[in-house]
Amino acid sequence: METRIFVVVFLISLSPFDVFSYKINDVQLFQKFEKHLENRKTDLSDVGLDIVQYLTKYNYSVETHEVTTEDGYILSVFRIPSKNNTNNTASAPAILYLHGLLCVPIDWVTLGPDTSLALLTADQGYDVWMLGVRGTKDSMKHTTFNSSQQEFWDFSFHEKGYYDTAATIDYILKVTTLKKVTLVGHSEGTSDSMILAATRPEYNDKINLIVMLSPIAYVGGVISPLILALVKNMEALKLFFENTLHMYGLPYSDSFAEGVTNFCRSNINICIELIKELCGNDQDELDADYLLVFVSSKIGGISLKELMHYGQEIKSETFRQYDFGELGNLIHYGTTQPPDYDAAKITAPVAIYYGKNDYLAAIDDVEKLSNALPNKVDQYLVESDHFNHLDFICSRNVRTLLYDRVLGVINEKNVNN
Ligand SMILES: *[C@@H]1O[C@H](CO)[C@@H](O)[C@H](O)[C@H]1NC(C)=O
Ligand SMILES: *[C@@H]1O[C@H](CO)[C@@H](O)[C@H](O)[C@H]1NC(C)=O
Ligand SMILES: *[C@@H]1O[C@H](CO)[C@@H](O)[C@H](O)[C@H]1NC(C)=O
Ligand SMILES: *[C@@H]1O[C@H](CO)[C@@H](O)[C@H](O)[C@H]1NC(C)=O
């Protein structure tokens, strides 16, 4: 616990922003949030609920499934079974939700009924599945290793796509007897889906649509001050974590999440500032109470290796596999440079959504990716100057700004054909 707090303070201290000199007047800030609330006000008793408790509270049925990957990770997948699947009728179409880095499956539902994309699709009769990728809360088990061991954390987003996403798709198709599934990814969840489709092209036939909310492939245009500071200090950070802290990744723990939540409860302006530093100035779309619900399931599930991998891609402006150095690359890939992820191999239909104030998925980067994708069915830049990386899952106004359009595209591929 002590160590982890230290780690977070260390991370914060890397930020060029001085968190202790932040000046926004809290009252004004809250009034501003109030004005923008379009939907249900956050119920503060949602803070700290896990996904099963949350869905039960809001009267959704929920099942917890376990999927074991080829490389031994045991993952939790949460399912809201389709209300259309009664009377032994044919299986309703299934959607697999893939969360981003730092996020967890519950983030797909906590904006509540009438706003959360996963709940909107459940209401329409879809069979909803939400995967927690390796290393995140509820997915920290392995057939051989435990999460204190270095071997457990020897993965990047490559493995989350290549193994976790593949195993979960196969599991869903087996349980439902469906032939295809729709994927909805946010942030790193989009990388997972692209990496799978590019490196195991046979999976394109098992996917009828990939919805990408804020796609992360090319990252040369990242402007997040927090991320850039991390990248700049990447090597030092790696040495510090590995040699001094003996940490190779950040596992989730309840007590740490509670610490983060209590910190944000009493220092909401610092929390908001950190979110701004990480993913984009965000005063119009985020409800401060909701922020507490959001952070109460954080932080965890990040491996040092994937941070290094992102750092490499930001520097090299590529979308490619982990760089082990020339010799290591020869051993792993048989080439001195790591192989690129070939976007041309992603032949499944793809719908792309991006924002104007996204510090991580820059407009140019997304358009570069989009130009390389062979089968686009929709591409849309959200019409709000403030819309940032987290707003894709956290904005109070996300339904009218984006989800209604996304629902139309999902229905087009699943129901209206
Ligand atoms: C859930 O269902 C119960 C029983 O029908 C009802 O009393 C309660 O208000 C519902 N809760 C929500 C959040 O809709
Ligand atoms: C299932 O069967 C019941 C009774 O026959 C019927 O009332 C209900 O509408 C059916 N549900 C679906 C989804 O077909
Ligand atoms: C679920 O059933 C309803 C009523 O039959 C239908 O309108 C809807 O399209 C179905 N949902 C899906 C996702 O197939
Ligand atoms: C994890 O495994 C290592 C090596 O077997 C062992 O020393 C350690 O106690 C284990 N940790 C936990 C939390 O089980």
From TrEMBL:
A GO molecular function held by the record: hydrolase activity
InterPro entries tied to this protein: AB_hydrolase_fold, AB_hydrolase_lipase, Lipase_euk
Example GO biological process: lipid catabolic process
Leader peptide range in chain numbering: 1-21
Membrane-spanning residues: 209-231
Keyword Signal: yes
Coiled-coil regions listed in the entry: none
Highest rank taxon of the organism: Eukaryota
Residue intervals of the Partial AB-hydrolase lipase domain: 51-110
Active site per UniProt: 187, 358, 389
Statement: the UniProt record of this protein carries the keyword Transmembrane helix: yes
Similarity comment: Belongs to the AB hydrolase superfamily. Lipase family.
Origin species: Hypothenemus hampei (Coffee berry borer)
Record's keyword terms, sorted: Glycoprotein, Hydrolase, Lipid degradation, Lipid metabolism, Membrane, Signal, Transmembrane, Transmembrane helix
Protein name per its UniProtKB record: Lipase
